[in-house]
Design goal:
The structure holds 2 protein chains of 2 kinds. Chain A is an alpha/beta fold. Chain A contains 11 helices and 8 strands. The longest helix of chain A is centred in the middle third of the chain and has 39 residues. Chain B is elongated, with a radius of gyration of 24 Å. An 8-stranded mixed β-sheet of chain B has the order 3-4-2-5-1-6-7-8, with helices on both faces. In chain B, helix 4 packs across helix 13, helix 6 crosses helix 7 and helix 9 packs antiparallel against helix 10. Classes of the chains: A alpha/beta, B alpha/beta. The interface between A and B is large, with 62 and 62 residues.
């Protein structure tokens, strides 16, 4: 089956992810898939959840932290600026404090605390995660393409959903227990909504958002996860390992895309030793790939003459990735 | 040579490398903590392996450690170095270690459980500690903190003369190091509130006698460790962070951003290593178009690298085979420290 065929056969798929080790071509394929779908009349958003995103570089447009930027007809791209998101969040907290206590200025003591809290290590991930939830919950696109972080850290994102969920469930449990006592106090004071209620509601709201986004990640009806692999021994090993881990999180792995295959026909030409060796090495590894991922290889992409950058190259890549016979989805 | 190829002037390595890695290393004789960062797939693990091998060959006891969640040191060295510091067969003084994330996390969890129990007991709080432990260790940042702690522990044990870290492939390296700053802030905060609590306890106590506070002791020692880590990691005479790139747009863009961030954090940047360069000497009149085009692309980006990075330390050629095993690493080390 080809990638084009996959999209034709699975019209309900809305969320597309390319995963794999660093440097294999995840961003390139995300951009190419987004472009290909947009050309077929679908409204597509490709966004990066990687703090060191490369979408700006590949589209040759500075989109970092600028929200959903229109790249071309039907094609939108977004690179999340975690730092800015954190700054906005800090400001929100300050505003709440000002409103609550009628202050003009935040005391130094509290300001330091806000700063320390925002520098907490998971803050950046949380900020990005939160924005991803925003984007997905808001809707408005036919396809969402996640340009994922490298393997290990993608796992981290996936596990984070379940970790957050468990964490909040735990806290919510404690809060609910406390509410019992609080309700008594509230009855005495004849208050309708207690302070605990408000906190609890906030927590439930957060948990619902997380559930929504993690349910997307594991929904085989709407989500397709593709692994990018290259014919190199270490990459194949890592991919098999990672695929096992991803399965544990019930990520619907729908296929594999093989990238950077050096055309064997080059053996006939005058090429340097490194390339000759590479082709021979790849030959054995390609056999292994076909054995390991039999029946699930959706595309095989050759090593290009130069790096992919700019719409002309992205268009060329889309042609190769989806096969020039791709045609319409309908 | 092809006509197209004849029209470009090739950039010799000497023109990119103004001060070599060897010269830089000589100029920093106390260098002890060496890191390699960059986009995924640029060859960070290979460079870290080659650098560690070189240091060991210089007669310095060296540890090559990976904090990457998906390790590749064992594959690189052709021997299992997972979960424990092991001597690399055939190279005296060369040790390697893939840190076991699951194990690290388990140990940190146990430690925290112990501390919380101890604290609850000390504070006379008659509660089951498990709920607290769960809440503390399920926090999403816990894993990252645990790995960072592990790295610091290895550094503090001080069993080696040189440490080469093959770090995680993303921006986490920056945060990993930046975290030492954050930790200090947190601990300061906790110590303050602990002092207040202590004062309160003293004020309310009948005996008016200062008691020993194990939690405070812990915080003080923790602050000491963090301060020490911070000093080590920002000390340009002892620490260097090298950035690896290929002559391609995306990896160049990534390390440009990295270097900017590192300067902001005051983390010492040791320079840039350019990897995977095809020797233009291979070109001849009959060279395949495919190769010619790649060489031309690389030359274009080498020009960019010359403009952007005045601190290129080495240019590594694309070898005729994959770098795997000590023999190949030896060759990389030779060029890296040429």
């Amino acid at each position: 089956m080809s990638l084009a065929q996959f999209f034709r056969d699975n019209p309900d798929i809305r969320y597309i992810m390319f995963g794999g080790k660093g440097g294999l071509g995840k961003t390139t394929f995300s951009a190419a898939a987004a472009h290909w779908l947009a050309e077929r009349g679908y409204r597509v958003l490709v966004f990066s959840v990687d703090p060191q995103a490369s979408l700006s570089d590949i589209f040759e447009r500075d989109i970092f932290g600028r929200g959903e930027v229109e790249i071309g007809p039907n094609l939108y791209a977004c690179e999340i600026d975690a730092d800015r998101r954190i700054a906005e969040y800090q400001e929100e907290v300050r505003q709440k404090i000002r409103d609550m206590y009628g202050m003009d200025q935040i005391p130094d003591e509290i300001e330091n605390y806000i700063r320390a809290a925002s520098a907490e290590p998971a803050m950046e991930e949380s900020a990005i995660f939160d924005q991803v939830v925003d984007i997905v919950v808001k809707g408005g696109y036919d396809y969402y393409i996640y340009d994922l972080v490298p393997l290990g850290h993608a796992l981290y994102y996936l596990s984070m959903a379940s970790v957050y969920d468990a964490w909040i469930t735990r806290i919510t449990g404690l809060r609910e227990e406390m509410r019992k006592y609080d309700a008594v106090v509230a009855t005495i004071r004849r208050e309708k909504e207690t302070e605990e209620d408000r906190i609890l509601n906030e927590l439930i709201y957060i948990r619902d958002r997380i559930n929504k986004s993690s349910s997307i990640l594991t929904d085989p009806q709407r989500t397709a996860f593709f692994f990018v692999v290259t014919p190199e021994e270490m990459v194949i090993e890592d991919t098999i390992k990672a695929a096992g881990l991803f399965s544990k999180y019930e990520v619907p792995i729908r296929g594999y895309v093989v990238n950077r295959v050096v055309p064997p026909a080059l053996l006939e030409q005058d090429i340097p030793e490194y390339l000759r060796n590479r082709i021979l090495m790849q030959r054995g590894n390609m056999d292994r790939i076909h054995r390991e991922f039999a029946g699930r290889i959706l595309a095989q992409v050759p090593e290009m003459e130069r790096d992919i950058r700019g719409m002309i190259m992205i268009d060329k890549m889309a042609g190769v990735l989806f096969g020039n016979s791709g045609g319409c989805l309908e | 040579m092809n006509t197209a190829a004849a029209q470009v002037s090739f950039i010799p390595a000497e023109e990119l490398v103004r001060e070599s890695l060897v010269a830089f290393t000589r100029g920093h004789p106390d260098l002890k903590y060496v890191f390699f960062g960059g986009k995924g797939g640029v060859g960070k693990t290979v460079m870290a392996g080659a650098a560690a091998l070189w240091y060991a060959r210089q007669g310095r006891k060296t540890l090559l450690a990976s904090t990457n969640p998906v390790h590749s040191l064992s594959a690189l060295l052709g021997q299992n170095v997972f979960g424990a510091e092991r001597q690399v067969a055939g190279v005296p003084g060369f040790y390697a270690y893939e840190i076991d994330t699951a194990d690290t996390i388990k140990r940190s969890k146990d430690e925290i459980r112990e501390k919380i129990r101890w604290f609850l007991k000390y504070a006379d709080i008659p509660t089951e500690s498990d709920a607290f432990v769960e809440t503390a260790t399920m926090n999403p940042s816990f894993e990252e903190s645990a790995m960072f702690e592990n790295m610091i522990n290895i550094m503090f044990e001080d069993k080696y003369e040189v440490y080469v870290f093959d770090t995680a492939p993303t921006a986490n390296a920056r945060r990993l190091l930046g975290m030492s700053k954050v930790y200090s802030l947190w601990v300061e905060k906790m110590m303050e509130s602990r002092k207040e609590a202590q004062a309160m306890r003293l004020a309310l106590s009948f005996r008016k006698r200062q008691e020993k506070d194990p939690l405070m002791d812990y915080l003080v020692s923790f602050r000491g460790r963090i301060g020490q880590a911070n000093r080590l990691l920002t000390d340009a005479s002892r620490t260097a962070f090298y950035f690896v790139t290929l002559p391609e747009a995306l990896p160049i863009a990534v390390i440009r951003r990295f270097i900017g961030w590192f300067h902001d954090f005051g983390i010492p940047v040791g320079g840039v290593v350019v990897n995977g360069v095809i020797d233009p000497g291979v070109l001849s009149a009959s060279t395949s178009e495919f190769v010619l085009n790649r060489v031309m692309m690389q030359q274009e980006y080498l020009g960019q690298i010359r403009e952007l990075f005045p601190d290129v330390r080495a240019v590594i050629p694309l070898f005729e085979t994959e770098v795997q095993g000590l023999g190949m690493l030896e060759r990389v080390a030779e060029v890296l420290f040429r």
